[in-house]
Amino acid sequence: GFLYIRYGVHQDRYWELLSGALMDMEEFVPFPDRSSETTTEGRFVEDLLTKDKFCDFTLPRITTYARRLITERLVLYESFRRRCTANLEVMDRFSQPGVAVEVCSTSGEWTAGKTTGAPTGGRRRVTVPVMLDGSDEAEDVSVGMLICPSSSASSRDLTRSRGRSYQELMQKYRDQQRDAAVATGKDYCKNSGRHT
């Protein structure tokens, strides 16, 4: 289904249709006839959104503008996935409504709120209903995007700490991209016999 969306749907709808799977930690073998290597559903979808080729398949081109928007949204998802895994181990915190939480958006903005009910069952794509401050309607929030804040919590406890900011993660990504571009340029010059 994910490959069908990547091939058969306009790129303007990629995020709408695929982002819900980005924090799915279910492992599977994408191409069992080629390799026994496993990946998670979330990482599989992220690869589809960020790469030009997947396995031996050439994926439809995504415009520079659309790719930049997708990349800016994806910067936080590694943290979201780690927070999701951590929160799944402490789900008893959300068993009753009225729990004070903070919710992170895909743009890195944090908003306070309170839970209004119990989490969904299972361990895949688990959400908790949350009423955000200033809102009059609850929304289902992935457990990878919320914390139960505590001033005494360790910064490494992603169930209670915001962790690294969006700005820090974006700068790290840009530094990695710049370093990769420099390395590619050096390899090109080396292979072509030119010197920089």
Write down the overall mean pLDDT: 87
> Tell me, what's the shape?
globular
Question: What is the radius of gyration?
Answer: 19 Å
* Secondary-structure content class: alpha+beta
The share of residues in extended strands comes to 15-25%
- Number of alpha- plus pi-helical segments: 6
Distance linking N and C termini = 46 Å
Beta strand count: 9
Approximately how much helix is present in the residues? 25-40%
Uncertain runs with pLDDT below 50, 5 residues or more? none
Task: Characterize the structure shown.
The structure is a single chain. The chain has 196 residues and is an alpha+beta fold. Strand 5 (100-104) and strand 6 form a beta hairpin. The strands form three sheets. A five-stranded antiparallel sheet has the order 8-7-6-5-9. The longest helix has 27 residues, at 166-192. It has six helices and nine strands, in the order ααββαββααβββββα.
Throw out a few tags for this protein.
196 residues; single chain; alpha+beta; two-stranded antiparallel sheet; globular
Task: Give a quick summary of the entry.
The protein contains 6 helices and 9 strands; from the N terminus they run ααββαββααβββββα.
Fold blueprint:
Blueprint lengths: L1 H7 L5 H5 L8 E2 L10 E2 H10 L2 E2 L2 E2 L5 H11 L2 H11 L12 E5 L5 E6 L11 E6 L6 E4 L3 E2 L18 H27 L4
Antiparallel strand pairs: 1-2, 3-4, 5-6, 5-9, 6-7, 7-8
